[in-house]
Amino acid sequence: MQNTPVTLKFLAGKLKMSVSTVSKALNNYPTINEFTKKRVQEMARELNFTPNKSAINLKERRSRIIGIILPNLSDHFFTRSIDGVEQFATAHGYNVIISQSHDDLQKEIQSADMLLRSRVDGLIVAISKHTQQFDHLNQFEKMGVPVVYYTRNPSFNLNCHKVLGNTFQGCYQATQFLIERGHRKIAYLGGPKMINFTHDRFNGYINALKDNQIPFSAELVAYTDFDQENTITAIQHLFSAEKIPTALVAFKEPILFDAIKYLKSINYPGFAKIECVGFGNNAFITYLDNPPVASIEENPESVGENAIKLLLQLINREIDLQDYKKVMVDCRLVVH
Amino acid sequence: MQNTPVTLKFLAGKLKMSVSTVSKALNNYPTINEFTKKRVQEMARELNFTPNKSAINLKERRSRIIGIILPNLSDHFFTRSIDGVEQFATAHGYNVIISQSHDDLQKEIQSADMLLRSRVDGLIVAISKHTQQFDHLNQFEKMGVPVVYYTRNPSFNLNCHKVLGNTFQGCYQATQFLIERGHRKIAYLGGPKMINFTHDRFNGYINALKDNQIPFSAELVAYTDFDQENTITAIQHLFSAEKIPTALVAFKEPILFDAIKYLKSINYPGFAKIECVGFGNNAFITYLDNPPVASIEENPESVGENAIKLLLQLINREIDLQDYKKVMVDCRLVVH
DNA sequence: AACAACGTTTCAAACGTTTGAAATAATTGC
DNA sequence: GCAATTATTTCAAACGTTTGAAACGTTGTT
C-alpha cells in the first residue's frame, strides 16, 4: 500500500522535469527527445504509473466506453450478443459497461442515468418488456450520444437506430421447414405481446402458411410468457383444439421445452410424432430425449457485432445521427 | 443534439450565480437558501443537467465502481453470482463493471489494467484457469484497492481475501447421500486440475468414503475438462473399470450431462440404475429424461453477495487490508 | 558577433466538479 | 444607529490529464 499516488506530477518531480514533458513522453510525442522518452517510460514502468482514466475522460470529453443495457444475463441470447459487442469494441479501443434491467422499467431508468453520468460515448440497448416510455433513453441522443436499439426495441418508433434479428424470416423458414416435412396443422406458440418482435414472428408463421395455401386457423395460435403455468395453459388450449396439431413453432426455446415436457407428461397421444421448432438453438438441446426437430439460430454474436459496428460509425459521425438505420440479421435454421 | 453541454458553469451563467452556489444547492448544502435551492434544482431539471462522473471521480479520488473479472458469462454460476454482487452494490451506491477473461491470461491482464485505470474502488475476481502469475492483480492492493478472490482463486496463496463455495462440504454431502442410498461403488469425475477447487471436491468425496469405511479405489476416479471428447474418454475409463460403479459424482453439471448422454447412447448395461450427482443445479435439469438424482446447489448469489460484502468492508477500512479473510459459503444438496 | 533556425522543454489554461475559507448581505440586540 | 451575529454567497485551489503557444538552448551561417 503506497500512499503517494503515482501521477504525472509525481513522475515529473522524480525526474526533475515538467509535467507536460512527462505526458508527452508517455504519449510518444515526436518533439520529445528520444533519450528523455526512454527515461520517462522506464521510470513510469518502474513506479507502475497508471494513467487516471477519469482525468483523461474529463480532458478529452469522451470516455471510450460503450454502455449496454439489457434485460438480464440469464438469457443466453444476451450473453452471446455481448461477446459480439465486446470483441469488436475492445478491438477499437472501447470498453463496455453492462447493466441489467431485470425487465424492470425503474432499474432500466437507473441504468440509463448511471451510464449518462459516466458519459458513455454510445449506448446499445435491449429494452425491458415494460418500457413504453423513452425519456430516459432519448436523453442520450439529446446529448449527442448515439443509441442503437437491438433485439427488443420500440417497434412503433421509426426514429431510432435498430439492429434486429430477422425474426420474421426465421419464423417463416421454420414454418416452411415443417410444411415441407408434410405438416399441415402447425400450431404457433407466441410470446409476450409487449415484446415487439412477437408480432413479426407471428407474421412469419402466417406468411409461410399463406404461401403454401394452408388455411390459417386461430385455434392453432396461443400466447404465453416466461411463466411455466401460462405455457401449460396455452398448450392445453392448443392441443385440445379441434384441429389437432402435428407440429409446433414456439417463440423461444425454454418455453418450447416446457411445452414438450408437458405433452410428454400427460402421455399426449401421438406425442412421438409431433415435431417442434423454437427460437434459440440452446446448447442443452443435445441432452434432450425428445429434442426439437430444428432450432432457429438467431446468431446473437452477429446481432451484437452489427450493433457495435453501427454504433461506432455513429460515434465517429460517419453516419448522421438523424439518418436512422435498420439492420436485419438473418436467422439460420439448424436441423438437429 | 445540443452543442452547449449543461455543466455547473452553464447553469450558474443562466441563473446568474456562482458555480459553487449551484453545486452546493444541488448537493443540498444546509448553508444554501431554500429558495435558491428550489430555483437551481428546477433549472437543473429543466435543462437536464447530468453531473459528469469523471469530474466527480477526479475530485473525490474514488469512483464508486466495483470491478468484476470472471472467466465468462456463459456459465450460469457466474451470471447468478453477478446478481448477488450487483444487488448489494447498487444498494450501497456502487456500480459494477464486468469484464470477461474468456479463461485467457492475456485478456485477464488487459481487463485488470482497464479496471485499474478506471480507478475502481475494489475488485472481485474469479481467475482464469491459466492464471499462475498475479502481478496484474497484486497491482491493485499495491495501490490500496482491495481485491476479493471468489470461487476460482490462487489456492496456494493465503495472503488474499477469498470467498469460496464450500465445495468440500458439497461433494462430501453428495457422496454421503449416494452412500445412504446404498451405493458402494461410487465413481468420481473430476475437473481441470488447474482449477484449484478441483482438489477440495475430490477430498470431499474421499472423506465421505472414509467416514463410511468404504475403501477408496483409484480405478473409480478420472479427470476431464470442458471438452466433450475428454469427458467420454474419462467415462469409458471409469465404466470399464473392474469395479463397475453404480453411482457417479461429477464436478460440474454440463459435464455430467455429457457423461449421462454417453452412457445412454451406448446402452450401458444397468444404465437406468446408475445414480448421478453434479455441481450446479442447472435449471435445465427439469427437461432431462434421465436427470441426476440430486444436484449440489452452489448458491452463487450468496457467494457473490458475500464477496461484495467483504469488499465493501475492506473499502471502508472496517477490515484491515492485510487481515486476510476466508469466507466459505455452504452448498446445499437438492434432490430431484 | 549577430541572428536565424531548429530541437527540445516548459508554461498555462482547460476539462467539470467539490469544499474550506473568505466575503458579503441580512438580521438581531441594545 | 451601530456593532455583533448569523445567513448566504463567492473565491480559489485542487483533483490528473492534455496541448497549443511560448521560451529556451544549441548549432550553423554569414
Write out key terms for the chains shown.
homodimer, 336 residues, alpha/beta, DNA-binding
Q: What is the general shape of chain A?
A: elongated
Q: Helix amount of chain A, in percent?
A: 40-55%
Q: Return residue spans of chain A where pLDDT drops below 50 for at least 5 consecutive residues.
A: none
Distance separating the two termini of chain A: 56 Å
Largest sheet of chain A: 6 strands, parallel
- Written as H for each helix and E for each strand, in order along the chain, the element string of chain A is HHHHEHEHEHEEHEHEHEHEEHEE
> Would you tell me the structural class of the helices and strands of chain A?
alpha/beta
Oligomer: homodimer
Rg of chain A, nearest Å: 26 Å
Number of strands of chain A: 12
Characterization of the model:
The structure is a homodimer of 336-residue chains. Chain A has helices at 8-15, 19-26, 34-46, 53-60, 76-91, 105-117, 135-142, 167-180, 197-211, 228-239, 253-265, 300-315, and strands at residues 65-70, 95-100, 122-125, 147-150, 161-166, 186-190, 221-223, 247-250, 275-279, 294-297, 326-330, 332-335. Chain A is an alpha/beta fold and 336 residues long. The termini of chain A are far apart. The interface between A and B is large, with 49 and 50 residues. Chain A binds a DNA duplex (30 and 30 nucleotides) through residues 5, 7-9, 17-21, 23-24, 27, 29, 31-33, 36, 51-52, 54-61.
